[in-house]
Amino acid sequence: MSKVIKLLKNNKLLAGAVLIVLIGVGIFTGEIVSTKNEAEAEEQSLLRKETEEQRLLAMKEKAVQQELKEQENKTSNDTTQVEIHTHNWQEVYEEVYYQEEGHYESILVSEGWMEKIPSYVSVTYGMCSLCKDDIEGRVEEHLNIHIQNGEEAQYVNGEKQVHEGHFEKYHPAQYENKWVVDRPARTESILSGYKCECGETK
Q: How many other C-beta atoms can be found within 10 angstroms of the C-beta atom of residue 128?
């Protein structure tokens, strides 16, 4: 090593060349170091970026898991509520109108009966023209009475109805159709189904 230094002292040109070489080596070495530092910095940046992405991804996944868990809990609660509910069935009625029911019957109004009707015959007889009396068989005696009283009378033929008996006429019984009510009109409450307070029907 001492020989190299002594040689450089004696040969200034050689010393300058060596100096230049050493300076170049130093610059190259510095560039290498700088490049290495930059690479390490970039690597660190990439690692930090990758770590941040992983952290965000983990947070997102955790949020999704939490949301799924909440939905499962809600579904479980809803299912539990449905299973716990017991229907309280209440009777439901509707009003139904029924018309009057009945039938017609033949009702006796009057009994049958027999009527006796008189029968007459026309008879010709001697009649006084003044007083219209029947003077058959005593014509002269009757007319003299009128003459004595200053009255004019004479014998005429008259005609009269003489009862000779009767005949019978039957009158049949009288009936009429009358409406007989078997069951009056009415409104009834008919059970039509059941309904729970939750709205379910059956």
A: 19
Model pTM above 0.85: no
Contact predicate 89/194, CB 8 Å? yes
The pLDDT tens digits for 96-149 are: 999 999 999 999 999 999 999 999 998 887 888 888 888 877 888 888 888 888
Handedness of CA 40, 44, 49, 50 (dihedral sign): positive
Q: Nearest CA to 155 among 131, 190, 119? A: 131
- Distance separating alpha carbons of residues 43 and 2, to the nearest angstrom: 45
- Residues in contact with 162: Cβ distance below 8 Å, sequence separation at least 6, in sequence order: 120, 121, 122, 123
Contact 120, 161 (CB under 8 A): yes
- What gap in Å lies between CA 4 and CA 22, rounded to an integer? 14
Would you list the domain boundaries of the chain? 2-79, 88-107+176-202, 113-171
